[in-house]
Specification:
It is a single chain. With about 375 residues, this protein is α+β, with helices and mostly antiparallel strands. Helix content is about 25%, strand content about 30%. It contains 8 helices and 17 strands. The strands form 3 sheets. Strands 4, 5, 6, 7, 8, 13, 14 and 17 form an 8-stranded antiparallel β-sheet that branches. The protein is globular. Its EC number is 3.1.3.16.
Length: about 375
């Protein structure tokens, strides 16, 4: 597993599996049913609900830095935007490059390298907000959750800000089943420990978290406590006119209310670890960790990301006492009243692939999303 992380790559092969090198579109759905990364196979799918697609995602397989003989592996990024698509698109454009830059400088992949890539991306986006502040002040209210997985050298790194989730499927031979193990830490004010963390960080602020319409929100404005972007809750200079009044706090703040510091876990992979499901909260609104893992375990790999989304939409339709076939007819924008944008990336980890060469080392770069969403 360690040697694979450093194996030179060959461009091509893996990106053409299934005859859809760049994925396909069907209505509001984008999907890549099956592809190959250096440690196995993967499946991706996205369903749009908002007028503008706010979810962005990518899978990069091959070199993880800019040094010719540097580490190779697989990078998965899932960016669930809120307030608009600008931040998630920005992250999709720059985060992986920042990771490669720091991996080159440190000559390794590590939790520190990944954290630096997150914080550098945050810094660059806040500079963009500053440049556009007078012409486009609303960009200060746009942010994104950011979930990243990196497989390299037999290790799986999971880094997260916000409430997207990564769940590992691990085989339990004794029980003849696959257990669901959540690897990511979520930062949402609905979680009591997150509210406690916010109160400890802001002991003088009695309204750091507010229960509003039965939903806990940071300052009564936003559910996530960590994100990239959301400049209006990071720097007081962006929490004033010409920002819309509904986003302005009554008093200036001296330290950031939200953080871009990721929670990072490092997991040593074993032969029991079968796959990882990366998904935005739109999926987890309707499926439990175990339900999602069971679906992946009990069905073919080909098209499994689409199958997970369909399972979530079936539940969403049932909650509204409507038929799934009728839900599918609802156009974007109106669709948001029934479910969120949903992005799913299922990454299979095949121990036997560790000793393969050529195509298993192919360079692959693929992004999920809607073509009607232009770059920032």
């Amino acid at each position: 597993m360690v040697t694979l992380c450093w194996r030179p790559s060959v461009k091509g092969g893996g990106s053409r599996r299934g005859g859809d090198p760049n994925g396909r579109f069907k209505g509001l759905m984008w999907y890549k049913d099956l592809g190959v990364h250096v440690n196995g196979e993967f499946s991706m799918a996205v369903i749009q609900a908002n007028n503008l697609m706010e979810d962005q995602s990518q899978l990069e397989s091959g070199p993880l830095n800019s040094v010719k003989l540097g580490p190779h592996g697989t990078f998965v990024g899932l960016y669930d935007g809120h307030g608009g698509p600008e931040t998630s698109r920005f992250i999709n454009d720059v985060l992986f490059s920042n990771l490669k830059k720091f991996a080159s400088e440190h000559q390794e992949i590590s939790a520190d390298v990944i954290s630096k890539a997150f914080l550098k991306t945050e810094e660059e986006f806040l500079l963009l907000v500053k440049r556009q502040w007078h012409e486009k002040p609303q960009i200060a209210t746009v942010g994104s959750c950011c979930l990243v997985g990196v497989i390299c050298g037999g290790l799986l790194y999971i880094a997260n800000v916000g409430d997207s989730r990564a769940v590992l499927g691990r085989v339990d031979k004794a029980a003849k089943s696959v257990a669901a193990i959540q690897l990511s830490t979520e930062h949402n004010a609905s979680i009591e420990s997150v509210r406690d963390e916010l109160r400890s960080l802001h002991p003088q602020d009695s309204r750091i978290v507010v229960l509003k319409h039965s939903v806990w929100r940071v300052k009564g404005l936003i559910q996530v406590s960590r994100s990239i972007g959301d400049a209006y809750l990071k720097k007081s200079e962006f929490n004033q006119a010409p920002l819309l009044a509904r986003f302005r706090l009554p008093e200036p703040f001296s330290k950031p209310i939200l953080s871009a510091e990721p929670s990072i876990s490092v997991h040593k992979l074993s032969s029991k670890d079968q796959f990882v499901i990366f998904a935005s909260d739109g999926l987890w609104d309707h499926l439990s960790n175990q339900e999602a893992v069971d679906i992946v375990h009990n069905h073919s790999r080909n098209g499994i990301a689409r199958r997970l989304i369909r399972a979530a939409l079936l539940v969403a339709a049932k909650k509204r006492e409507m038929r799934y076939s009728d839900l599918k007819k609802i156009d974007r924008g109106v669709r948001r009243h029934f479910h969120d944008d949903i992005t799913v990336v299922v990454v299979f980890i095949d121990p036997y692939s560790m000793n393969r060469s050529s195509s298993r080392s192919s360079v692959l770069s693929i992004r999920g999303g809607n073509p009607s969403s232009p770059k920032l």
